User: Fold these one by one.
Assistant:
Number 1:
Amino acid sequence: MTEHFRNSTGEAVEQRRVLIVTAVAAERDAVLRGLKGSDRFHVVAAGAGTAASAAGTAAALAAGSYGCVISAGIGGGFPGRAPLGSLVVASEMIAADLGAETPEGFRSAAELGFGSVSVPADPGTVQAVAAALAAAGLPVSTGPVLTVSTATGTAETAAALAARVPGAAAEAMEGHGVAVAAQALGLMALEIRAISNPVGPRDRAAWKIGDALEALTAAATILLEVL
Ligand SMILES: O=C(O)c1cccc(C(=O)CC[C@H]2O[C@@H](n3cnc4c(=O)[nH]cnc43)[C@H](O)[C@@H]2O)c1
């Protein structure tokens, strides 16, 4: 759905209502702090994982009209691609572990003939959002964001995922689910991750969740202007 407002020259400008889906309440609240009470944005914490995020997105889309859906939250950054505290705007949302193990190695659901495991984001929107974040002084990169059912906890799995998806920037657990639900209604989907930890050997005590939530709040404020 679109709403209109008049800009400084009196011209009518379309603005879309935006649904933002996070996994947990702390992420939702970080986003809400950045949105400063805007009623054009609706933010829901739908739970962790693709099933909860897809179901939560579908339920919210059934209850309201939106022009755009965003999966947002903290995430793991691939070393050399997305440092802690930085932001990643997904160029595509990929179900990276949806497939089968075979004697020859992992085969994706797409390779097995079950359809695509990737939902591409609109390149122009990705670039516009990333440019606005960068212009605000926030460290940001773009690239594929992997949706996984099990958070990576070893260097071996991190290397396997990076080889499976060249250029992979970040991983989280919801983006593909949110994007598939949006895609079913023909809506544009985006994913934005604030990096709390590296993808690699698990060290939960070292996760910089507070810094990532602050970055998420700053990103939400920029979304007010750019979407
Ligand atoms: O403990 C807290 O205070 C806290 C605050 C905000 C968020 C959390 C979460 O644990 C969020 C879970 C959510 O995070 C994503 N995530 C973060 N890092 C990774 C990763 O390396 N691999 C996969 N997922 C990651 C994921 O989307 C989870 O649903 C805790």
Number 2:
Amino acid sequence: MAIEFLKLSIISSAITALTFYLIGLIIYCEDIEKLATNNSLIIPKSTNGESVIPYNKGETDFPIQNIPFGIFSDQGTQRKRPCTRIGGYVIDLEILEQNNYFLGLCTQSNMFAGATTLNPFLQSGPNCWHLIRITLIKLFSPQAELTNLLRLNVIHNFESVSMSLPVYTRSFTDFYSSRYHAVNVGTLFRGPQNALNPNWEEMPIAYNGRASSLVVSGTGVRRPNGQVKGTDGQVQYKASEKLDFEVEIAAVIGKASEIGMPVKIKEAMEHVFGFVMLNDWSARDIQQWEYVPLGPFNSKNFATTISPWIVTIEALQPFMVEMESQQPVPFASYLKQSFSHTFDINLKVYLKPHQSHQPALLSTVNYRDLHWSLAQQLAHLTVSGANLEIGDLIGSGTISGAEQVGSMLEMSKNGGIAVKVGEDVERKWIEDGDQVVIKGYSEKQGLRIGFGECSGQIIQSLLI
Ligand SMILES: O=C(O)/C=C/C(=O)CC(=O)CC(=O)O
Ligand SMILES: [Ca+2]
Ligand SMILES: [Mg+2]
């Protein structure tokens, strides 16, 4: 009797448990559907076999091998926080951290929660950068289960978020390291005899830019006003009539150096976290009048646009290439390198004219064509004892090649000739309402690691 009763109660408990489980499952599934619909996030099943998140392999800039870092805010909370991206989806790193997905990986436990820039993450050091990247690659592997991540609201459609500056930058230095660009600009400004100053081949020349006017891709750029010397020799105060772009890559410093302690060339790359694209907007008429003797000032301090995603040095490893031997070999020992490498990064600049807004390709250049390496730039910047700080931006300088160039100044020969922009439009300089878009990517054997876009549209001057 007692045994019969025991059997019955076990069966009834099992049935109750099963019922609760099934009810729970139904609620749970509904919940996920609700969550997914609330976010209008319906993630199609992946077919690329590389990641649970779908994308077209070889077409997207953001395959799972990329894992770039940025700062986003969603429409709902509008709160800035760190993220990565796979295909067309942005992944919230704050929520992942708060739900212990990164537990024990880094010495710091709080790098993303409450952070409005990536500086605290960079502070955690190269070992941590690597482990976070590897963890994210595993988390979104083809075998991964998205259910929990959807419940946690970790994934957002890129189209539904806005991006901000990825780092807080106290120092922005811009180099002048493309021989093609320096010769072209020097010839246009000073004539062929004085194109390259004698110091150019001895050290990587640079100017210190204005960090406070760094803006993220998509921000409007107001046409600057300033002093200009006309062809009649008269100096005027007016809106720049020679507004230009410069196609560049900028290194993001991830490891600081000590003031008074130059960074050795061999160790220089250890200070670099990754790269963004950079457009060093330039007002050539203001530049030509102001730059002797102290270099660019108002002509380049009004806005500098950077792309929102920092592509890490680690993701760019497959695209590392040896630099051509440097001629002449620099005299200064601190600039000598036994092995010098750079990265094969294609950069394409498009103009969307205000008349049509149709993108027209103006030029294709490559980061590898620079004369001075990034390690040499950093060794030179710090040779005086100047220090590097986390978040500093080091612009490569305008990237021009033997055939194609990275500025309108060079394309139009300082406004001497009209440049074709698509079928029906011509430009000598950038007009109000024009949008300049730089796209960048490395590509090899079906693997494409890209940077996305670096764009800005010109707003009319306040003087008009
Ligand atoms: O004076 C010159 O020859 C030109 C200087 C620059 O344009 C400065 C600059 O931004 C360098 C660069 O982007 O390569
Ligand atoms: Ca520049
Ligand atoms: Mg600038």
